Structures are given as C-alpha cells and as structure tokens.
Amino acid sequence: DLFQKLSTDIGMAKKNADQTAEVTQLDFDAASERVSNLSGVNLDEEAANLMKFQQSYMASSRIMSVAKETFDTLMRAV
C-alpha cells in the first residue's frame, strides 16, 4: 500500500511539473514575441527611410552648391 501511495504521489508530482513547465514555456514564448515586436527591425521600412534620407541629403547638397555658386558670382561682381 505504501508503494502504491508513493507511486501515485510521484505520478501526480510529475504531472504538475509537466503542466508548470508547459505554462512557463508559453509565458516565455509570449514574452519573447513581445520583445521581438518592440525591438525588431523592419527591413522594408529601413530601406524606405534610407532612400528618403539619401534624397534629402542630395537635395541639401544641391542647395548648398547653388548657394556657393551664387555667393561666388556675387563676390566676383564686387
């Protein structure tokens, strides 16, 4: 009778441990997904931003070139 009680207790403890492990794994997976969503990098969005910044840089560079040419022309006129 003692052996059967011990065997039953061990079986119940194993079942509880398995359930706890499963719940813990689900919690871990959910937390990992939340972290990935917060810190993840969207490559399409980054490529679009890169193109936008490159175009802005080129436009700014052209403005500076025109300003320099205008300033040089004014200095030669004086």
UniProtKB/TrEMBL annotation:
UniProt keyword Nucleus, yes or no: no
GO function term, MF aspect, one: structural molecule activity
Keywords: Cell projection, Cilium, Flagellum
Alphabetical GO biological process terms: bacterial-type flagellum assembly
Flagellar basal-body/hook protein C-terminal domain residues: 39-76
Keyword hit for Calcium: no
Protein name in UniProt: Flagellar hook-associated protein FlgK
GO cellular component, one term: bacterial-type flagellum hook
Family: Belongs to the flagella basal body rod proteins family.
Natural source organism: Photobacterium damselae subsp. damselae (Listonella damsela)
Regions crossing the membrane: none
One Pfam family this sequence matches: Flg_bbr_C
